[in-house]
Amino acid sequence: MNGIHDMGGMQDMGPIRREKNEPVFHATWEGRVFALEWANPREWPYSEERLHIESIPPADYLRMSYYEKWLVGMTEAMVKNGMVTRAELESGTASAALAKPPHVMTVAEVEAFFRPATPKARPVPPSGRFQPKASVRARNIHPVGHTRLPRYARGKRGVIERDHGVFPFPDTEAHGLGKKPQHVYSVRFAARELWGEQAGTRDSVFLDLWEDYLEAA
Amino acid sequence: MPTTRREILGAVLTTAGAAAASELASAEEHDHPDDHDHQAVPSDPTLRVKALESLLVAKGLVDRATLDALVDTFEHKIGPHIGARAVAHAWVDAAYKQRLVTNPVAALAELGIGYAGGGGPVVVVENTAKVHNLVTCTLCSCYPSSLLGLPPLWYKSAAYRSRSVIDPRGVLREFGLELPDDVEVRVWDSTAQTRYLVLPERPAATQAMSEAELAALVTRDAMVGVARVTPKGASR
After folding, report:
1. What's the CA gap between A137 and A153, in Å, rounded?
2. What range does the domain containing A49 cover?
3. Looking at the domain assignment, is residue B155 inside a domain?
């Protein structure tokens, strides 16, 4: 959707403020939201939570802090998928156990997470529709739901830099419409193609784009 | 569901986080703690989150000790020092650098570093005298967090997300880095599961330094691409 979250290319957001000695979390509750998000035994795709965050009205989106928005995305998805009910959230009291108890993340699993694993040999996917160096155009589409094709690249010509392999398609997955797996490519756009004469002649922007966003050019 | 959780790690590192609008008032670097709006959102989230946590514990969905371990891990164990080790090793070992750029996950594992992010690949992009790389996420806040820790507020801010793609040179100037015209700027907008780590240039006059001393120079900002590594490690 053409929402406030899709802000690449806007120019009126002010200077970039940096904080010296920034803590990892600015309040205890932020760390708890982070941990709840991580440990949540969800079965829905993360893109669904992004959809909920992107659906926050723009003024609120700009006003809310980072972890407040996370809280919205996580809570909405939990309710929608039947993990908790609104009544439970309001009362703070569990009313019914889940029909199928989930696996609960353990401390050992947290520790294992950052241990180096022998990288799994990713199955080499069949090659995609586009090959490196192919000239492509990002489609001029304006989906009303979740998408990873930013507005600033739509209709612009680029070149396939590399093929990252096959991934679920967020535009359908976020809406419960299936994974629709497809190739994701690193696509290089000349800065001048995106922004015109004001951009540096040598500069470029690389985006990772799903095959359905692209057409041959 | 480890696969799902791996995806979530990246995703976690992914969600949007625009700065509060009133945070836009000043360009100055400032010390914490002071006038943050998210700080001024006091009891409401605190109570809501406590209630939510209690509910999820009561429903048998999460374990409190696991939540504590997650907070502790990201507050005390995961941070830029991890990425810095890989960068310093790449500086002293050309063959390793080649492996880090061509097969990052395996190269990181050689140093005992686990990469768990995004549900997709990590790509290491190398800065040279003629190419400068800058990482951003215009749609949200995707970031190589297993290598750098959680992203700073500025990376998640509307100001950075919006301008990093249209005016990267202006953004870099704001960070105190003026690039000559003949240096090519490559901006990486992390729109999918791939995460990007910048391999900064090794500063001059560091030949006598040990690998550990070199690692201490490598900053988070240099690995995002908003700074160079300086011999004193002065820029953050």
Report:
1. 9
2. 28-113
3. yes
Cis peptide before B231 (omega within 30 of 0): no
- Which residue do the tokens 């802090």 mark? A65
Tens digits of residue pLDDT in A80-94: 999 999 999 988 899
Say how far apart CA B19 and CA B31 lie, in whole Å: 16
A49 CB neighbours in chain B (<8 A) are 11, 15
A&B contacts, CB < 8 Å: 370
**Same-domain pairing of A142 and A101:** no
- Rounded to a whole number of angstroms, the distance from the CA of B144 to the nearest CA of chain A is 13
Q: From first to last of its 236 residues, what are the pLDDT tens digits of chain B? A: 333 443 444 333 333 333 333 333 333 444 544 444 444 444 589 999 999 999 999 999 999 999 999 999 999 999 999 999 999 999 999 999 999 999 999 999 999 998 876 678 899 999 999 999 999 999 999 999 999 999 999 999 999 999 999 999 999 999 999 999 999 999 999 999 999 999 999 999 999 999 999 999 999 999 999 999 998 744 44
Residue B101 domain boundaries = 78-224
In chain A, which among 88-127 make CB contacts under 8 A with chain B? 88-89, 92-94, 97-98, 101-107, 109-111, 113-119
B145 is catalytic: no
**Any idea what the CATH number is for the domain that residue A107 is in?**
1.10.472.20
Neighbours of B131 (CB within 10 A): 14
Between CA A6 and CA A16 the distance in angstroms is: 18
Query: Is residue B140 annotated as part of the catalytic site, yes or no?
Result: yes
Determine contact: B131 vs chain A, CB below 8 A: no
Considering all CA atoms of chain A, what is the largest pairwise distance in Å, rounded to the nearest integer?
62
Q: Does B22 qualify as catalytic in the annotation?
A: no
pTM: 0.90
pLDDT at A90: 87
